[in-house]
Amino acid sequence: MRRKRIYEGKAKVLFEGPEPGTLVQYFKDDATAFNNQKQGVITGKGVLNNRISEYFMVRLSEVGIPTHFMRRLNMREQLVREVEIIPLEVVVRNIAAGSFAQRFKMEEGAPLPRSIVEYYLKSDDLGDPLVTEEHITAFGWASTQDLDDMLQLSLRVNDFLSGLLMGVGLRLVDFKLEFGRLWENEEMRIILADEISPDSCRLWDTKTNEKLDKDRFRRDLGQVAEAYQEVARRLGVLPEAGPIDIKGPRVMQ
Are 30 and 11 in contact (CB under 8 A)? Predict the structure, then answer.
């Protein structure tokens, strides 16, 4: 079936959905790091991220966090609501790691005094620069009200996912969220979009601090696919071997 491609990113492709206001989000096995300077393929990553992101989005919607996720269609695709994406990445940090640890000359793994929320402009050309609320509102990327909504939702996601992951022996070190504006009968609301997966989160084993996320690819640690599989296994969503595909749960909002 040929479908109209709407957008292709580094890890996903968006196609026109079966009904108006919907899109099909396809998860690729491609992996990139350092703003696309490092590229590779992690076999089966798309299948795992589809399952893991579905699981997180369903659980978040159960606690009242609005998301674009509707249902999983097959091994690599999910049906999502079409939203107007806000061109910002919202990063929530609980523990110093990655670029943050380097920026402040902190030891990786040092706990932060409280969760810190940062905004980055989604722009490959500019290298996704860190931006302030002043930049965001002055350039019209989001309004003060949008930012308030995004901040509140991000902190709620952090609280919920931190507890959920701690229950399966994983520490949520930091993660990236994206949001979109959903228009319904002239009413606009901000909802969670994109994905939540080991591509967009740093996940460390609570006992060993072993990294079970995309840092294994960034830092050439090996066993990348195995790390993603381990996260899926702990969450109880590791797909069975073979082409058999179980229909995902339907999400009603």
Answer: yes
Do 107 and 177 lie in a common domain? yes
Global pTM reads 0.93
pLDDT in tens, 40-90: 999 999 999 999 999 999 999 999 999 999 999 999 999 999 999 999 999
Residue 148: which region, alpha, beta or left (left: phi > 0; alpha: psi -120 to 50)? alpha
Q: Three-state SS string across 47-82, please?
A: HHHHHHHHHHHHHHHHCCCCECEEEECCCCEEEEEC
The strand pair at 69-72 and 77-81 is best described as antiparallel
208-222 pLDDT, tens digit each: 999 999 999 999 999
Q: Which residues of 210-230 are buried (b: 16+ CB within 10 A; e: fewer)?
A: ebbbbbbbbeeeeebbebbbb
- Say yes or no: 115 and 141 in one domain: yes
Asked whether residue 243 is assigned to any structural domain, the reply reads: no
In a domain? residue 122: yes
In the numeric block, which tokens belong to residue 157?
Answer: 């996601």
Residues forming beta bridges with residue 31, ordered by sequence position? 40
Give CA 169 to chain center in angstroms: 20
> Which range marks the domain in which residue 57 is found?
5-83+223-235
Is residue 246, in this structure, part of any structural domain at all?
no
Nearest to 180, CA basis, from 101, 110, 82, 253: 82
Residues 53 and 115 in one domain: no
